[in-house]
Amino acid sequence: MSYDFYMPTRIISRDESSADSCVKTHSTIFALGKKAVIVCGKHSARACGALDDVESVLKKLGIDYIIYDKVTENPPVSTCYAGGRAAIEAGCDFVIGIGGGSPLDASKAVAVYAANPDFAPDDAFSDNIRAALPIIAIPTTAGTGSEVNPYSVMTLDGKNVKKTMKTPYAYPRVSILDPRYTETLSRETTVSTALDAFCHCAESYLSPKSTDISRMFAVDGAKKIYNSLDAIDKLGSDADDPECLKLLRYGLMTGANAGGIAINTTGTGFNHPLGYNLTLYKGLPHGRACGAFMSAYYYYNRTTELGAKLIDDFCDAIGVEWAKVAADIVRWSDVKIGSAYGNALTPDEIELYVNNVKGAGNYKNSPYVINPDEMRDIYQKLFG
Predict the structure, then answer these.
(1) pLDDT digit string (tens) for 4-60?
(2) For 184-188, 263-267, 336-340, which range has the lowest pLDDT when averaged over its residues?
(3) Long-range contacts: 310-316, Cβ < 8 Å, 24+?
(4) How far is CA 246 from the centre of its chain?
(5) Is residue 38 classed as helix, strand or coil in its secondary structure?
(6) Where are the beta strands (DSSP E) in 69-177?
(7) Backbone torsions φ then ψ of 98, nearest 5 degrees
(8) Strand partners, 94
(9) CB 3.0 to 4.6 Å from 84: which of 11, 114, 311, 324, for a disulfide?
(10) The pTM is what?
C-alpha cells in the first residue's frame, strides 16, 4: 500500500514525573520571534495556569507580547480578523494559541490575517493565502486535535453557519501537551471534548483517505478515549471530583492528539456537519452533538460491505463489539432535545439544518454517502 503522510508539527508532551509544566521545561521553543500575540479566551487560559506559565517564560526570555483574549466559543470571522489586525498594529511576529478548539482555531486565523495584511475577512477562505505567522499551540481541553492540523473553523458573521479555513501555512510549529491544564475542566466538559475526539477517530477510520498510519493513530486514540469514558461512566457521581479524573487526563489528552493526527490525513464524516446545527442553534456542546449521531453513522455505513468491515475492524481493535460502542457513545452524549436544549425540532427547523450543511464535503468521507432526504430522516428520528 502506498500513502502520503504529512505531519509538520513538533509534539511535546509533559513528563508525568516532572514537577514543572511542559511550557517551563521546554521554554526555549518560545524563542520564535521578538513579540508574540497570545490568543485565548477571557478566563480559561488563566484559570488553568497555562497563561501564567507562558507569560513567565516570555518574560524570562525577554520576549514582548500582547494578549488577545476576545475569543468566544465558535469564534466569528470578525473576531479572528480583529485579532490579526491587533497583531499587525502591535508588530507581533509569532502567535501562541492557548485553549480549547475555539482559541486554537482562532490562533491559526489570526496568524494568517497578520501575515497577509491586505486580506479582507473572507480572504481566509480563499486560495490566496501566502503565509502565516509561526504558531505555538497549547491545548487546555482534550478533544479537538486542533493543535496538530491546519484547520480553523469559524462562524460566519450574522449567520449560524460554520466555515473552515484550510491552508498548510496554518499548521502549528509546535504543540505542547500538558494534561495538568485540563484539570480545571468539569466532568461535563471533559466528557464532551472526549466525545469529539472519539468521533474524530471513528470517522477517520472509515474515510477513503485513510492509510495504515492514520488508522494506527485512530485506533490508538479511540482505545484511550473509550476506556477513559468508560472509566468515568463507572465512577458515577465520584467523577464530579477533579481528583478522580486526574489519572485519566493523560490518556484523554494523548488520545485526542492521536485523533487530531488521524483527521489531519482524512478529515471527518457526517457526524460533524450534522452536529454543527445543534451547536449553533441549540447551544449543544460540540462533542456531544457529534456523538449523538454515532448510531446513525454506523447504521448507514454498515449497509455497505466495506463500511461493515471497517467498523468491525475498528471496534475489534478497541476490544468492544460495534453495537455497544455506538450505543455507549450516544448514551454518553446524553442529548435530549426537548429538555435542556430546547424543544423538539420542527419540520422547518430540520429543513433549515439540512440546507445549511447539505453541501459539506464530509458526506463523501465514508463508504456510504447520505443524501439530503436521509439527513432529514436522521434529524427527525433523533430529535423530531
Answers:
(1) 888 999 999 987 667 789 999 999 999 999 999 999 999 999 999 999 999 999 999
(2) 336-340
(3) 310/205, 310/206, 310/367, 311/206, 313/205, 314/202, 314/205, 314/206, 314/218, 314/219, 314/222
(4) 21
(5) strand
(6) 94-99, 135-139, 151-155, 162-166, 174-177
(7) -130, 125
(8) 36
(9) 114
(10) 0.94
- CB atoms under 10 Å from CB of 135, counted, come to 27
The CB density around residue 383, as the number of other CB atoms within 10 Å, is 22
The answer to whether 83 and 68 have CB atoms below 8 angstroms apart is yes
CA 165 to chain centre: 14
Q: Mean pLDDT lowest for which of 77-86, 105-114, 136-145, 159-168?
A: 159-168
∠ CA 91-172-271, nearest 5°, is: 125
Q: How confident is the model at residue 159 (pLDDT cuts 50, 70, 90)?
A: confident
The grid coordinates listed for 190 are 471533559
Question: Is 134 within 8 Å of 173 (Cβ atoms)?
Answer: yes
pLDDT confidence of residue 338: 46
- Asked whether residue 198 carries a pLDDT value surpassing 70, the answer given is yes
Q: Looking at residues 232-247, what average pLDDT do you find?
A: 89
Between CA 207 and CA 263 the distance in angstroms is 9
Cell numbers placing 23: 511550557
Helix axes 271-282, 347-357, angle to 10 degrees: 130
E-strand ranges in the chain read 10-13, 35-39, 64-68, 94-99, 135-139, 151-155, 162-166, 174-177
Grid cell of 352 as nine digits: 433549515
Q: Cβ(27)–Cβ(61) under 8 Å?
A: yes
- SS3 label, residue 122: helix
Average pLDDT, the chain: 94
Which long-range contacts (C-beta less than 8 Å, at least 24 apart) are formed by 361-365?
361/267, 362/267, 362/268, 362/269, 362/270, 362/272, 362/273, 363/269, 363/270, 363/273, 364/208, 365/203, 365/206, 365/207, 365/208, 365/209, 365/266, 365/267, 365/268, 365/269, 365/270
Type of residue at 334 = D
What's residue 340's pLDDT? 47
CA distance readout (Å), 23 to 56, 96, 175, 332: 10, 12, 10, 33
- Please determine, for residue 337, whether its predicted confidence score (pLDDT) is greater than 50: no
Closest CA to 351 of 297, 296, 277, 298: 277
Instruction: Summarize the confidence of residues 327-334 as an average pLDDT.
Output: 93
